[in-house]
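Protocol step 4 of 6: record predicted structures for both targets in the notebook before any analysis. Target 1:
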Amino acid sequence: MAEGDSLEGDSLHGSSLYGAHTSLQFNNTRNLLDVVDSLRSHGISRYIDLPEIIVCGEQSSGKSSVLEAVSGVRFPSKDNLCTRFATELILRRGPVAPIKIRIVPGSQEERSEYEKDKLLNFNVSVSANDLQLGEIIESAKDAMGINDSTKVFSSDILRVELSGPEQPHLTLVDLPGLFQAGSRSQSDADSDTVKSLVLSYMRSPRSIILAVVSAKNDFNNQSITRYSREIDPKGVRTLGLITKPDTLDKGSDSERFYIELAQNKEVKFSLGWHVLRNRDYATRDSSSQERNHTEAQFFSSGVWRSLHTSHVGIHSLKPRLSKILKDHILAQLPDVVTQIQDGIRECSERLDVLGASRATAQEQRRYLLHVSHSFTSLVKAAIDGLYSDPFFGDASTTEGYQKRLRAVLQNQLTDFAKVIRTKGHKHVIVDEFGMLMLSRQISRSDYISKVKTLLERSRGRELPGTFDPLIIGQLFQEQCEPWAALVNNHMEKIVRAAYSVVRTALSHVSDHSTLVGLLRRFINDRFQILATELRDKVKEILRPHDTGHPITYNHYLTENVQKAQGKRRMREIKKSLGQVLGADYTDHGVVNIDINVNTLINTLVNKTEADMNNYASSTATDFMEAYYKVALKKVIDDFSVLAVEACLIQKLPTLFCPEDVLDINDATVAALASEDEEASAERAQCNEKLKVLEDGLKVLQDVQEYSLGFKEPATLQSVITGSAGLGGEDSKQLSTTDIDSENAIVERILESVP
């Protein structure tokens, strides 16, 4: 039995398990192709590439004869520019029905209402006997607005639907033939146009390329396989098709070359090669049966007998193409569904930004109210750290992070606190035994000497051993000198981050013209006022530390002084004890040592500071360092809370609120919200695309409403996976003798359906 025979006559009730299996496979294939064709008929291919087989090749390569052999319909014999558009050929097995021909609109084009009506009303229903495809093509050209002067090509698609008992379940897209040199009827510019069209179809990753090569011409002069290998270098989605093998001289090098080509030796494609024998000029009027019989005789003799029967002839090409297309759809349909859903979401988001039509003053004011409400909500969410809105995107990206204002603030202020703690003091005072590592470091003894000189030159009426309290303020002001630069640096970073979020949020909820108008009238001036208030508040926070007298009632001040002095006394006592005892016993715990108590007392007493000015300088240094720690904590919190939060961040939602929209007059509303032609056109395009995608998604959802030829209704997932109607426990291997009923046969077949 030939490969294609079982596809014609076997049914579920036949005795052949293979035939029943194939019948069910054909039901499955038909419904899969119907789903994709329905998507294409809704115009979804204008936005999303769909799985399809495209027929492409050079002019006079035999493309028309291939389509004629597959469908049984006579196509125009010369593949020239009379077809300046793609033709979609839909073949389905079923009862004989009239051939339906219509136009599927391509990408949006500028057309008059008359041209649009001609396009939408182009519907032809004719029997196969009365079909004059050449005349229909000319009528289609007229409906598409194609002429020889202003428009030589259209992105519209001519759709031809055929049904009959001998037809395969198959959909092909026929493309105009490539040609290299222009002539009187077709120019060099036309050649470039056709090439651009064909390559655009070939580049689609969801296209199966049926590359037609004529054995009558030198292989190297046919560009289609070169384009195929450039676009599909691994050949995973290319099937080569050799036509006119009967024109080769028997035993010639050319014949041997094309035999090896058909064996996938010369140019390798994962899908391999196929060979067809076309009608020649003498048999151009022969019937399909006569053509098929002549072809079968040709491949059963001579060197062509060496090729596998599944790779030659029309009888095996039909099921081969059907299987390739079905497998391709199964592999691509999940991604198509995802892409449709993504497209619907993107269109919806963009339409939310564009809003409704804004032709009247009422519509314009309503649009501004929507913008203000959405803007305020987004800014509040950014401030509160609630990032659930799609506006905030992916936090792992720089763009997504910059929109998360609370996260940016937390990180900026944490970094500010760290920087000012480590770099905020002018001098790093270390003990004498410490190592000087930084240029800012100074030993305590040197710093005390510096303070002592300052005390001496600032002496008032204070008693020896005491100091003027104002000296602490003078020392502190010098120590906190870097604060202003550090605070201002982080303040400007926060101002830029806040403005970025404000502008980005407003851009997200309004179109460009409204964005520019709102920035100019409301946002920029108000934001500058907030930024000025912030800078003034920062100056106010820093002013007491720059010029005022140190003031604090925080007990932390005296605790720090006492701790610092206690640590120094402890070091001095340990040092004195070591001198008396002859060693450091602090790590020994309890020890028994003979000691002269008077000597110990005298040693400890003699450590009293004799230089009262030195004592006063040391004490002043202790108070300055303690006050610096208290003031540092305060300036960190005041900058974060009283300045950044209170003066800037919490006021951002007021930059443009709904009350502003109610207070402005109609002229201002029109200036801010009137819609330009570009926005109006974009809304129309988005609405059109959204409808097409939603209709396409509904087609896929409706898959759940009908069966794929199995006992249970199919789900979308079953269509995608090819598992419709499969049983769970029926995967065990059974022999045909174990099958006792028709239902058992069905279950066994279903388990084998891929």
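Target 2:
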Amino acid sequence: MEDRLQMADGLVPQKIVSVHLQDCTLKALEDQASDQQAQTLQLNPKPSTETQPESEVMARVGREDPKVPGAEPTLGDGGASGSEPAGDRDREVGSVEHCPLHLSSCHECLELENSTIESVKFASAENIPDLPYDHNGSLEDVAGDTRLEREGRRVNVTGKAPNILFYVGSAPQESLGRFLEIRSVLADCVDADSYTLYRLSRESALRDPWSDNCLLLVVATWEAIPEDLAQKFMAYLSQGGKVLGLCSSFVFAGFQVLRKSVLEETVQNLVFSKADQTQVKLSILSSGYIYEEGPGERRSLGKLQGHLENEDKDRLIVQVPFGEHGGEAVLCQAHLELPPSSAAVRAPEDFDLLKSSNIRRYEVLREILTTLGLNCDIKQVPALTPLYLLPVAEEIWDPLRQWLGKHADPKGVIKSSKLSLKFLSSYTSEMEITPSVLPVVTDVEAFSSENFNLDIYRQNLQTKRLGKVILFAEVAPTTMNLLDGLMFEIPQEMGLIAIAVRQTQGKGRGANAWLSPLGCALSTLLISIPLRSQLGQRIPFVQHLMSLAVVEAVRSIPEYQDINLRVKWPNDIYYSDLMKLGGVLVNSTLLGETFYILIGCGFNVSNSNPTICINDLITEYNKQHKAELKPLRTDSLIARTVTVLEKLIDTFQDKGPNGVLPLYYKYWIHSGQRVRLGGLEGPEVWIVGLDDSGFLQVEEKDGKVVTVHPDGNSFDMLRNLILPKQQ
């Protein structure tokens, strides 16, 4: 009931507690509710649309959008006093008709979303603590200043409640699916903590004063908009409202929608002009309709425009100002709301084109939403969390504790040049966590995570030494730094690995940052390699082995062998030869006769946006082959990758490069690929393979095979290859 509940006289609830009532008490409440309902019916025998009882309005909102906070069954038909008694279908055995708390007018209830309730706290009936109620002001304060900032909500410059409303038609099942689909993509674009996304039904649109508290109205239905509803939408626009039309029949200001069946559900090239006049070119799924201006005076349009890259330059996106109060709409006939994995996308080549443009699709959506007044700033960096020390096998635990006792200072701290790890048995929220000082909890029993299952990791880890001791964090600065103070001291048979669900300072090659959204497998593995060994003499191969291990970890699963995951030289994981979905970063230090190597790896498992992930490939494979492969998990894939890596290292140490190159070439994307040396104007060569040190070998036009190195400056390692200087 958060954001929806106000008691009489402006009282604000501080606790909502479940209690068990005896049958006699329930009967008394039922009689009381029936008496009150009868009195209300006598006072309001024929409520009109204008004087409709407030509780009826709120009951209707609750029925039509089960996601609205507070829309519980008890506030449905039977819970509202004044008009519609509950039918038998709304009752369960033993249920009663509840007497609703007093609600002010619907308009005021919507205003409450921006003012009254800061939080609703639940407590156990057996042990009810005193819960502090943290509010930023009284109702009187709010009435005088609707710009009051609530915790977790943006201060709207309009002073309106932060509502985005979706009108998706009247067909019950189809409109619900359409609403969830569009709400999902908009939630990825805007700050989720700043806005509330609601579905707007036709009845609510006609009766409720939604326009006073709506920052954006999204119209996304091919149903013809009824005349009375169209008038409401136009009235909203004339008051300065903002409208986004997504593949909708809604038009105004002389525009008309024309069908062009040859374009329907086909992938087309769109040229989109942004507000600063720069252009974005991308592949989109067309609705099959275009916009044309009707006869008469031509309107002055906004700067956002989008047309197909065809001979007719068909209009698919137009920005149309309206009225004297700043109202405007952006109308769109490109399916910007549909992901490439949508059922509407049938052909594999269409999926590839749309996935390749997925980042630009979000760029266009954010540009439109920002122009319409919404905040699409990057979401707040998540707060750091404590680390957990998790041994995979019981026999490691005692030696590990003994080692910590010898190497940590009296306060349990191990320092390195980059950070300090403070080992302790338990963690409390009062303890400070900073990027330079991180607590490490050693109580395994206290560990739990929704995003990492230790048992699943254990089941999938089949190694002799690697990955046996985990430093785990929900949110860490970067896993590459976590092992810095331990890598030279901890016994190598303990197999240290750092795993994080998210990173705030993820690192890529050189000065590049690595984005670390939820659903990305993030880890740094510690390995040691003797200098005088096959791999010790060819350390550049380590990054190749790691990227190969990720691909093989997926494609070695029975029935997953055709998932089109590949390696790109020198350190990337790719979908086909189209899109990057992972990368490897290797830092090595030679001490005496041993290389101490940190292998950082991140690859997308379940985070579809803004690029692509492994589970996208599985979903697309299922669609194309009528298969039922299950999505994969980050914890199992990290463990499988470490397992494969250990086998590859052992094979390399035994047989050298030739022991692993056949598998590497099986999965790499470069066979017969042409590149230019030194830049776009350089000589053209053909990639033929790797040399004995792991660098590329290319064939020149005269048939000569030479080794090439990256120039050290390029973002894409294949963009500016150079011949090494002859000694």
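Step 5 preliminary note on target 2. The first helix runs from residue 23 to 43. Residues 38-160 have pLDDT under 50 and may be disordered.
Proceed to step 6 after PI sign-off.
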